[in-house]
Structure formats: structure tokens, C-alpha cells
Specification:
single chain, about 290 residues, alpha/beta, nine-stranded mixed sheet, two-stranded antiparallel sheet, about 30% helix, about 25% strand, globular
Amino acid sequence: MSSLRIAVGFKVTPDYEALRASDWVRAAKDGVDTRYVRRVLDTFDESALELALRLRDARAEQGLETGLMAFSVAGREADPFLKTLRALGYELAARVGPGVAPDETGRAGGVSNDAGLDFAPSATAALVAACARESGDDVLLLGCSNSPGDDGTIPFVVAEMLGRPCVTQVTEIEPAGDDGLRVTFAADDGLVRATMRAPCVLAVGNAVVSHLRVPTLSDRLAVRQAAIAELSATDLGVDVTAALGREPSALTGLALVDRSRAGVILGGATPAEKAHALYHEHLRAELEKL
């Protein structure tokens, strides 16, 4: 019975749509304070996590073993997601990175929002590659891009660091023998299906499946005592400060994009009155010009 080890790197991002406009005013100086908004999974990362589960299930039907690991470059804000993944059958769930900052009261347990890493794909890639080496995976799944500040290069930089081939815009993954994979990905001229051998890096794009399955209550209870592994940059041999210093680009400012539209509220108590107002106050003059 052959075993394939799959690692999935994902990112938990703040729901930036829930931020107030005033939060962006001091963003360039102090970073964006996102402690009060909920955390969400990036869409492409969520697809990667579910594709790994489906690949495990498909291999199990063929009598093949599959080991699953998930990790996130994050603080404790990722713990609820990591616990969900443990309940879904990921044997190991770990968070990697700078750790947790004190909250407003000075006690440990606040959420760290490291703007430096959010806008430093090369430094983030160094952490992801180091974690992949530590896990000893055969296949590494990543979202093709995630979060503000990501330029879509992380999977390619990680693949170069690991010395592995990389396929991007992956939409589906199927087993092909003991250690083979049939990978469907989007190319310029349409969908392409290729057979690959491990080790490799797969960057998931607009996948067939975009939502992570929900674990049952019994699944959650079965792993309620399971610990979330913690790995620091030091553990992985990554000097984050030096990596940030080598970053080819630097964050110089953040600004909220105004997407509001101009509009007019029509008067009138009935649909007929509103239609009358629309015609006489707004459309008539334009129509007479025709």
C-alpha cells in the first residue's frame, strides 16, 4: 500500500470589507487594525484544502494511503480553522510565524496582524518553503494568490526554493497510480490535463470545488483535545527580518478605494408617481436632445 504525503498552506485573512473608512487613514503608519473584524479563508486556499480532502478520499477508494497536513503563516486567529481541519481528517495542523501580540490590556492572547508579512510575498514564501521541508511532504498545495498585498508569486518562489516543478491555476486533482496525479489546470487555450509525479507544487485557481466541507459534531468532539502545533521562524531556520530586508518591494502606503456611485432618490408615494418624476425630472430633457 503506497502512501502520499500532502501539505496545504493557507492564509486566514481579515474581512477587509467590514473595516471602517477611518481605519485606513492611519494604515500606512500603524498598519490596519483588524482585531474587531472576523477572519475568513481565502477562496483559493479554501479550494486547495477541499481538493486535498477529495484526493485523499479518491485514493482511499483505490486502497492507497494519504497523509494530510495543513499549516498557516498566522497567529492564534487561525486556530479555529486549524481545529476544523483536524476534525476533517488532517493529521497535523500547525501555525507558523511571528506568534501572538498582546491585546489592548497588555495580556497575551490578542491577534497579531503583521502588515510586514502581508505585503512581503518573498518573506512569506521563505516561511512556507521551510515549513514544507519540515513536513517532508510529497505534494504541496497552495492558493494561486491570497490576501491584499499578494502578487501571485508565492507558489512560484516556493517551488524554486524547494527545487520542484510548479503548476498554477489548478482546477482539479485526481489519483493516477501509487504516486501519480492527474492534474487539470487552466491555460491560455483552455483546460489542460497532465499526469505528474511527486514531489511538486500545485497552485489552485478557480477550482471545480470552492467550499470546504463542514465537519460533523462527532468529528469535532473526537479531536477537541488535539493540540495545534506551533512553529516559529526560528524553529524553521528563517530570519524574517533579513527576509523582509531583501524584499524587492516595500509598502509605502494604503488607501481606501472609493467605489460609491452617484444616485438620486425619486419622490412620489406610488410607482406611477415615481415613474412620472423619473420622466419629467431626469429623462425628458435627455430624450428631447435626440
